[in-house]
């Protein structure tokens, strides 16, 4: 599995380029899309399609070839293979057949968006694409009302306005970030509440590009007004290492470990 750029073709590792040059065949979602990358780096290797519609049959074919000694490099159209993309069946089949599997790390839109969002990154949940149907989308969001983690989803541009409306209705005014066209020429990162960002996008003729949606975390499953030092000490008394106790209390209260540690230092002072 070879991580490829999510937009800017310079975002690829030396190792990834070497692996693509050494592979016997490159399995990809769209051969036309991948050919742009291969041509950019003067990689002359055959490319075969591997997508959700032929995944089962193609997996059997590729495994049979690998058992004969063929080296296959699996890529997605953009980013790290398998992350909201096909590839799981091929990896599982290869492992079951005793074939060595290696992951060559590379760019990933959800991590890139999280790093640039300004939202807490110590604890997050990635949910792939939200359901297309409004009712199912609403239920999915409601299930995370009390999640003490930053929520990350991929979303289609033609659904983003409806999704932001659902976020506003379900999760209220918590901070939201919409990262669009990451690493590309028209990269844009919008920050605010769901209502504010929706108003900005609704004023445009259309919304285009690949979108990553991030939602600030909730307050936790239950309110706890116990002083921080007492809450941490209670966890330690239960046998938990101190740093793990700090992390646990932070997650319960929707705070970062750094925030809890800083407050404990103040109390100690």
3D structure, described in words:
This protein has 269 residues and is α/β, with parallel strands linked by helices. It folds into 3 domains: 14-96, Cobalt-precorrin-4 Transmethylase, domain 1; 109-215, Methyltransferase, Cobalt-precorrin-4 Transmethylase, Domain 2 (2-Layer Sandwich); 228-268, no CATH class. It contains 11 helices and 8 strands. The strands form 2 sheets. It has a 5-stranded mixed beta sheet, with helices on both faces. Strand 4 (124-129), helix 6 (134-142) and strand 5 form a beta-alpha-beta unit. The longest helix is centred in the N-terminal third of the chain and has 13 residues, at 55-67. It starts with 13 loop residues before the first helix and ends with a helix.
In short:
The chain is α/β, with parallel strands linked by helices. It is 42% helix and 14% strand.
Q: What Rg is obtained from the alpha carbons, in whole angstroms? A: 22 Å
Oligomer: single chain
Number of strands: 8
How far the N terminus sits from the C terminus, by CA atoms, comes to: 50 Å
Main-sheet strand order equals 4-5-8-6-7
What name goes with the CATH superfamily of the largest domain? Answer: Tetrapyrrole methylase, C-terminal domain
Strand proportion, as a percent range, falls in 5-15%
Tell the overall outline: globular
Order of helix and strand elements from N to C terminus: HEHEHEHHEHEHEEHEHHH
CATH architecture of the largest domain: 2-Layer Sandwich
**Structural class computed from helices and strand pairing:** alpha/beta
Question: Percent of residues in helical segments?
Answer: 40-55%
Low-confidence stretches: none
**Overall average residue pLDDT:** 92
> What kind of sheet is the major sheet?
5 strands, mixed
CATH topology of the largest domain: Methyltransferase, Cobalt-precorrin-4 Transmethylase, Domain 2
Number of domains: 3
